[in-house]
Every structure is written in C-alpha cells, then in structure tokens.
Amino acid sequence: MASQVSQLRGQVLVVEETLLLESFALYEPKFKLNASHEYKTRLDGVRDRQKAMVKNGEGGHR
Q: I need a labelling partner for 25 at 20 to 30 A (CA). Which of 2, 9, 55, 62 fits?
C-alpha cells in the first residue's frame, strides 16, 4: 500500500507540473503538425467527416 501511495504521489506531481506549464501556454503538442495551415487542413477534414456523419444519421444524439 505504501508503494502505491508513493506512486500516486509521483503521478500527482507530474500532473501539477503539467498544469503549471500549461498555465503559461507551454504544453506538449498532441499533433505532429509543423505549421498552422497543416492544423487548419486537419481540422477542416475532421469537421467535414463530422458533418457527413450527422447527415448520414451516424453522429449526434437522438
């Protein structure tokens, strides 16, 4: 039990550090995109797929 508590405390410290860095807009990117136009292209594709799913009755809540 003591080792589990120690492990969980370590995880809390990692989360706290991550939150602190993110509060200063320093974060690890989740996407491997090199430029803003790549992000926009990817986002446009996701939105197009979402629209198609809604039109086909596959997306959204009923």
A: 9
